[in-house]
Amino acid sequence: MAGDSDGGYSLAELFVLKFVLADVLIIFVLLFAGVWYAIGLAAFLVVTTILVWYLTNREASQRVPDPDAIQEAESTHAAPDPVTKLQDRYAAGELSESEFETKLERLIDANERAERAGLETAELELERTD
Fold first, then answer.
1. What pLDDT is stored for residue 1 in this prediction?
2. Which residue has the higher pLDDT, 21 or 60?
3. Residue 15 pLDDT more than 70?
4. Smallest Cα–Cα separation from 87: which of 58, 35, 116, 126?
């Protein structure tokens, strides 16, 4: 059996190993202990297999998501920047072309002034809200 790169076995490989070993064990018990012991052992192995499957699925559903994946998902749902808001308003017909260009120029000028002053512009809004 080929192990993973970290030297371990995948869950599927472990189940295959378990069933091969279980078959050998059941045949051994059937030959030397009797039919009822072999049936009991087979039932025990089936129950333990179902239990292992249930526990691994439950563990997988309770895993904590990767923090990088959470941060990436949050960044994709973050509020759009002022230029995007302006473009959306222009596309929706709320602004004429001249209003759009005027507001865009004002935004660019304000951004340049803020950068020269050393201010972070990511949180600035396009228009004042009084």
1. 47
2. 21
3. yes
4. 126
- CA distance linking residue 1 with residue 103, whole number of Å: 66
Phi-psi region of 7 (alpha: psi -120 to 50; beta: other; left: phi over 0): left
Q: For residue 111, what is the DSSP state? A: H
Say yes or no to pLDDT of 126 above 80. Answer: no
- Say which residues have a Cβ less than 8 Å from residue 83's Cβ, sequence separation at least 6: 104, 107
Nearest CA-CA partner of 83 in 125, 114, 130: 125
CA neighbor of 14 nearest in space, from 52, 61, 65, 71: 52
* Four-CA torsion 78, 83, 84, 87, nearest 10 degrees: 160
Sign of CA dihedral 58, 59, 60, 63: positive
- Two tokens, residue 103: 């507001």
Q: What is the pTM of this model?
A: 0.37
